[in-house]
Amino acid sequence: MPSILFLRDAIFALILLPLMAVHHVVATDYVVGDDDGWNTGTNYLTWSEKYNFTVGDVLVFRYLAGQHDVYQVTEETYRSCNSSSGVLRRYASGADRVALEEATTYWFICNTSGHCLGGMKFGISVANSSSQGGVEAQAPAQGGAAPRGAPAWLLGLTIGMWGSLCY
Ligand SMILES: *[C@@H]1O[C@H](CO)[C@@H](O)[C@H](O)[C@H]1NC(C)=O
Ligand SMILES: *[C@@H]1O[C@H](CO)[C@@H](O)[C@H](O)[C@H]1NC(C)=O
Ligand SMILES: *[C@@H]1O[C@H](CO)[C@@H](O)[C@H](O)[C@H]1NC(C)=O
Ligand SMILES: *[C@@H]1O[C@H](CO)[C@@H](O)[C@H](O)[C@H]1NC(C)=O
Ligand SMILES: [Cu+2]
């Protein structure tokens, strides 16, 4: 029944839009490498291009402590992989949380011998939270799955409300 389907989508949009706007100011944790974590054999350039990072977000590095580490470095050191200078911060716990506090470009390498040259390195630019305010305020795709990052309870709530309105 088209009219009911239309109603569903309209309700979906009405409920979701304000919540998406709220969601956007909430900090997000990003696990570096997603399920692969921080290791050799993952393309971190590809990973770094998957997301838009905003001030307040957190990078989580997961790896076996002792096998890898995390250095936040200057762009020059990122390019040369020579950590004799240009190291800003070091992490080595295996479950490091790096808060992205500034709207700037962050550069990371692994300092285990050979790993940076092998590709355990990436840079991300972090945007001011206000500068992206409008970007996500778009209607969700037709028939859409939950937008990336929308919490599961939100999807549940939305489906629950469709149910009570449509059936
Ligand atoms: C990141 O931002 C760009 C430019 O605003 C946009 O085209 C792209 O879809 C965004 N990517 C994600 C994953 O949100
Ligand atoms: C790294 O840089 C330092 C200081 O510039 C230099 O002495 C050293 O030879 C460099 N190491 C490598 C492996 O290039
Ligand atoms: C981000 O916002 C702060 C404060 O609102 C401002 O001082 C800074 O210049 C902005 N940075 C960028 C890169 O837009
Ligand atoms: C970082 O790596 C370099 C080159 O492998 C090594 O000489 C240096 O000791 C390492 N730094 C630390 C703190 O382990
Ligand atoms: Cu490593």
TrEMBL record:
Keyword Signal: yes
Gene Ontology molecular function: any one: electron transfer activity
InterPro entries assigned to the protein according to its UniProt record, in alphabetical order: Cupredoxin, Phytocyanin-like, Phytocyanin_dom
Keywords, sorted A to Z: Signal
Domain (Phytocyanin) ranges: 28-128
Superkingdom field: Eukaryota
GO-annotated cellular components: plasma membrane
Family annotation (Pfam families): Cu_bind_like
CDD domains per UniProt: Phytocyanin
Signal peptide: 1-27
The protein's name: Phytocyanin domain-containing protein
Organism: Musa balbisiana
